[in-house]
Design a protein that fits this description.
single chain, alpha/beta, Helicase, Ruva Protein, domain 3, Rossmann fold, two-stranded antiparallel ribbon, 11 strands, EC 2.1.1.297
C-alpha cells in the first residue's frame, strides 16, 4: 500500500520537472481518475493498492510527455458540461466559455451556427442553456465530428425547450449550398476558428498532440477568420450577431485594428466591438449585421 499524500508530492515534482505549470492540480485529477473517485474524495480515500498504483503510473507517464490532461481522462469540463474529448479534437478552453455570455447579452432566439464546432462545447452550451435556438454545429474534421456526435447524444436530453442541435459534417464554405434555406435567416454565428499564426510559440500539449488544423492558420492567423466573416455577411439576418474568438494580437477592444477592422471593412456590420477574456486579453470581436441599403 502507498500513502496518497506522499505519492502526490512525488508526482507533483515530476510534473514540475516536465514543465507543467498546473502540476499539483494535474497530479490530483489524474489520481482521482485512476482511483475512480472525485478529486475532493482523495484525502479521505484509503491508501492506494498496487494495481491502482500501476494504473496511476501509466497515466502519469503520459502526462510527463505533455499529453493533454483531458485526452488522458477523456473528459473536458466546459461551463455546465463534461465533454468527451481525445486525439483529433481541440480541447475546450475556459476562455471560450465567455462566448455564451456574449450571446445572452446581445442576441435573441433563432437559428444559430457554430462554425468549426469541434467537441461541440459552444453549440451544446447554447442549446442546453438557452431556449428557442435551432443550433447547427458545423465541423469538417472526421475525428472531431466523432466526438461532436458523441457529445450531442450525451446531452440531447438537456437541450432547452424550443432548442435543437444538429451536427453538419461539412466545410463552412459549403454551408450556403448544403443549407440554402438558412441564407439570410441566421440570428447568431459563433466561431472559435484556428487563429494562431503559423510559427507562433505554443505549449508542448498543443505542438505535439492537438490537431494543428484546429489551432494554426495562414495569413498571420486570419485565413479561416476571413472565411467566417465572409460567410456571416451571407448567412446572417439583419440584426444577427457574429462573435469570433481570436488571438490577442488580432483584435483590441474598441480599437480600429485587427479583426474589428476586418468586420468594419465589409460595410455589413454595426455595433462592432471587442471583449476581453478572464486575463484581460482581447479575445473576442463581435458585430451586428446591419440592413442592406
Amino acid at each position: 500500500m502507498t500513502a496518497i499524500r506522499q505519492l502526490l508530492v512525488d508526482v507533483e515534482r515530476r510534473f514540475l520537472n516536465a514543465g507543467i505549470e498546473s502540476a499539483r492540480t494535474d497530479a490530483e485529477l489524474l489520481l482521482a481518475h485512476a482511483l475512480g473517485v472525485s478529486r475532493s474524495q482523495l484525502m479521505i480515500a484509503p491508501d492506494i493498492a498496487q494495481e491502482q498504483l500501476h494504473a496511476y503510473e501509466l497515466v502519469v507517464r503520459r502526462r510527463v510527455l505533455r499529453e493533454p490532461l483531458q485526452y488522458i481522462t477523456g473528459i473536458a469540463p466546459f461551463r455546465k458540461l463534461e465533454l468527451e474529448v481525445g486525439p483529433g479534437v481541440l480541447v475546450p478552453r475556459p476562455e471560450t466559455e465567455l462566448m455564451i455570455d456574449i450571446v445572452k447579452r446581445f442576441s435573441v432566439p433563432g437559428i444559430a451556427l457554430d462554425l468549426g464546432a469541434g467537441s461541440g462545447c459552444i453549440a451544446l452550451s447554447l442549446a442546453t442553456e438557452l431556449a428557442g435556438f435551432e443550433v447547427y454545429a458545423v465541423e469538417n474534421s472526421i475525428d472531431a465530428l466523432r466526438y461532436l456526435n458523441k457529445n450531442i447524444t450525451k446531452y440531447q436530453k438537456l437541450v432547452q425547450l424550443g432548442s435543437s442541435i444538429t451536427a453538419l459534417g461539412i466545410d463552412l464554405v459549403e454551408l450556403p449550398i448544403v443549407k440554402p434555406e438558412l441564407v439570410g435567416q441566421v440570428q447568431v454565428i459563433l466561431a472559435n476558428p484556428p487563429y494562431v499564426p503559423i510559427g507562433s510559440d505554443v505549449s508542448a500539449e498543443v505542438k505535439y498532440f492537438e490537431p494543428a488544423a484546429a489551432v494554426f492558420a495562414q495569413s498571420n492567423g486570419y485565413a479561416v477568420i476571413e472565411k467566417v466573416i465572409e460567410l456571416a455577411t451571407i448567412m446572417l439576418a439583419p440584426g444577427g450577431l457574429i462573435v469570433i474568438e481570436h488571438h490577442e494580437s488580432q483584435g483590441l477592444a474598441g480599437v480600429n485594428g485587427g479583426l474589428i477592422e476586418k468586420l468594419r471593412a465589409t460595410g455589413k456590420f454595426v455595433e462592432i466591438n471587442g471583449v476581453d477574456d478572464l486575463t484581460n486579453r482581447p479575445r473576442f470581436s463581435y458585430g451586428i449585421r446591419g440592413a442592406d441599403s
